[in-house]
Sequence to fold (394 residues):
Amino acid sequence: MTDRKYHHGDLKHALVAAGLAILEVDGLPGLSLRACAARVGVSHAAPKNHFGSLKGLITAIAAEGFARHAAFMRDGLTEGASRRDRLRAAMLGYTRFAAAHPHLFELMFSPNYPDFSDETLRRNAADSYSVLRDISTGLDWDKAAGPDGQVKTEMMLWSLAHGYALLAMSGQFSPGGATKAPAFPIDQVMPEFGYRE
Amino acid sequence: MTDRKYHHGDLKHALVAAGLAILEVDGLPGLSLRACAARVGVSHAAPKNHFGSLKGLITAIAAEGFARHAAFMRDGLTEGASRRDRLRAAMLGYTRFAAAHPHLFELMFSPNYPDFSDETLRRNAADSYSVLRDISTGLDWDKAAGPDGQVKTEMMLWSLAHGYALLAMSGQFSPGGATKAPAFPIDQVMPEFGYRE
DNA sequence: TCTCCATATTGACGATGTAAACTTATCTGC
DNA sequence: GCAGATAAGTTTACATCGTCAATATGGAGA
Fold:
């Protein structure tokens, strides 16, 4: 059992971890199959056996990203808090995740990179979406009338969080420079709702 | 004066036009310096003289994209209509542009590709933003109190439009498939405002 | 122990962005 | 009108990337 085995043992997870680490440091342009393989200490063609192509690896990374995204949002939700506070906490979690991991966030929602028909990716993305969905049930606002009010409320909250996250990320809310934080966090840019407890 | 001149004459604009055309057909992955050069009928290194690098060409394409984006939004704004209608028209214009030119829209807001410190890009983006800004002045809603109410209103509207556009574009609002249109257009997912005419 | 097969390696190919050296046409000053 | 300067395009070359085919390795089951 040498330090450098021919069979890695858990190359699949190791490559995803390497990809996540590369994203944090070099961003999307630095993410390549060869770079991930090199970081794990494996030949450049090894990833092909586990993920068919670059798209496959990126899809796996995106799936892991959605899992972390959901966990990030759930982190601020203490069960006892009011509905109002929990909704705000989830929205803040959404945007804070994007600010903390901008490149991963961009990869997750980039129409080109991941394969959105992948089963685990769909499941993790749906789970992440369900955090906002669960909290937004029964919110009262002017568009929430009729059988589609729930869907419309979800669409609005998700759009708001997603748009804010991306625009803040690309520096559009801070004309002085992309590194500066936006003037107001998202909970100061949300409409008020009536909360049926 | 042959048909095939050594000096193209207007290569800079021709390359941007070629890039836009390639985007419509092949999307972002098909956009490359060499592909644009080939489409114009010029050697693969010719673009280097006008744009320093791929980032330079992409920045020019994004700037043109913002100009078209602003025009798209302004198209629905008839001067006589009510403020309420104009706001809705601008929001619909925002999302419809993204639906009509998804790859260009993605390029415009991708944090990696364009150089957001470029002067014309900043100017065109600011002009595009000003369409929403102008319409949203003086809207009454619960967060619009105080000296920052105007900024918060702009941030909310922009975030809402942008998030909706991106999520709809990547098929997140239509679980059946990315090609299907979302169930509700954005004007049915917006909060109501008080309008000070 | 022997065989099968998933796993990893090596080498190669075409495509891409970029750089440097070179060529061609247009412009400028006389 | 002409000669040098300069802008605009070409050619060649190189490193890197994703992908493929052929090969090597070692563990699992008989």
Q: What stands out?
A: Residues 54-75 of chain B form the longest helix (22 residues).
